[in-house]
Specification:
It is built from eleven helices and eight strands. The chain is α/β, with parallel strands linked by helices and 247 residues long. Strands 3-2-1-8 form a four-stranded parallel β-sheet. α5 (95-103) links the parallel β4 (88-90) and β5 (108-110).
């Protein structure tokens, strides 16, 4: 992955945000996310003023990576860029929007859930795809199966992700990061429960780091050969019978 995609992947979770009162909430929410070690946000155009929210979040926390979600038209891409937004997320695969975002030199993560979507994405040289709605579209099992014929893609699933299944998703190497709204629900934002949002972000990061650490440890052979010891071919390779299930 390129450096920008890797930075998001290193964080592991991307809050998906709908702000109905950006002037009141955007700056405070940005600070709550950063305090929880989740300095990234996808602000959706499902509510008016998403571009305003992006601008205010970037002003409050310049170190944050802030982008726009639920982008369905070129004007929203323009508005995102003007507000200082750094990436675009679309609910489906729209080749015109992908081409336009690339023309404007802003990363785009289009929604892809079928082999046809994935195949179309190949033509644009994309590295990371959004998988939405994740759970309703087959969840992790489908993502793993899709990665067999399309190993060049990493995936950001969104839809049905929570603290309960975050570890399951993150444990799969095909997953770049998980999008979710569980840490930024309407109730939490309307209630201005910033400390609770920070706590949920910290819990999410703890899960991501613990899961990835566990995966890394499993990749290390239990016994390493002593110097000069003859090693049979494949002796220390991971045993796998099905690529799609092991990804």
């Amino acid at each position: 992955m390129n450096k920008f995609n890797q930075t998001i992947s290193d964080i592991g979770v991307v809050p998906v945000i709908k702000l109905t009162n950006p002037e009141r909430d955007a700056a405070l929410l940005a600070k709550a996310l950063c305090a929880g070690d989740v300095p990234v946000a996808e602000v959706t155009f499902r509510a008016a003023g998403a571009d305003t929210a992006i601008r205010l979040m970037k002003e409050a926390c310049p170190e944050m990576i802030v982008g726009a979600g639920t982008v369905t038209e070129k004007a929203q891409i323009d508005a995102t860029i003007a507000a200082g937004g750094q990436f675009i997320v679309t609910p489906g695969f729209d080749p015109e929007l992908v081409a336009y975002a690339q023309e404007k030199n802003i990363p785009i993560y289009p929604g892809c859930t079928t082999p046809t979507d994935y195949h179309a994405a190949l033509k644009f040289g994309l590295e990371v795809l959004k998988f939405f709605p994740a759970e309703q579209s087959g969840g992790l099992a489908k993502i793993k199966a899709m990665s067999a014929p399309f190993p060049q893609f990493k995936v950001m699933p969104t839809g049905g992700i929570s603290l309960k299944n975050l570890s399951d998703y993150i444990a799969a190497p095909v997953i770049a990061a998980c999008g979710g709204s569980y840490m930024v629900t309407a109730d939490l934002i309307e209630g201005q429960k910033w400390e609770e949002i920070t706590k949920l972000c910290k819990k999410s990061r703890d899960i991501v780091e613990a899961t990835r650490l566990g995966r890394t440890v499993k990749d290390i052979p239990a016994e390493m050969p002593a110097s000069g010891t003859e090693v049979a071919p494949g002796q220390y390779a991971e045993k796998s019978t099905d690529t799609a299930q092991k990804i």
